[in-house]
Design a protein that fits this description.
This protein has helices at residues 2-24, 27-47, 58-81, 84-93. By secondary structure, it is an all-alpha fold. It has one domain. α2 packs antiparallel against α3 (58-81) and α3 packs antiparallel against α4 (84-93). The chain starts with a helix and ends with a helix. The model has no long low-confidence stretch (mean pLDDT 86).
């Protein structure tokens, strides 16, 4: 249950920090910093023994990773280019 509560909290905090960041930074900066954070987590996973697999499910895992990165970029475009008071509730309603 704790991971679910943390997820909900972090998504809410991310909405706030995204709004604040987009005041002065381009959406591409957020994607870049997110990529660096994913890279850091990936290094941590490799250091603790996780290895990439080309076995069953690897193709789906790769597609999921691509979709995650793409949807994050689209989220940034939507928040950065639209009226946040309209875009945020719309995005929240479809999650």
């Amino acid at each position: 249950m704790l991971p679910a509560v943390a997820y909900i909290s972090f998504v809410g905090i991310m909405g706030i920090t995204t709004k604040l960041a987009l005041r002065d930074a381009d959406w591409r900066q957020l994607v870049l910093w997110s990529t660096l954070a994913y890279a850091a987590f990936s290094v941590l996973l490799v250091v603790t023994g996780t290895r990439p697999s080309l076995g069953s499910g690897a193709a789906y895992a790769a597609v999921t990773g691509i979709l995650a990165a793409t949807t994050f970029a689209l989220y940034m475009l939507a928040i950065g280019g639209g009226d946040v008071s309209k875009v945020a509730p719309f995005l929240a309603g479809i999650q």
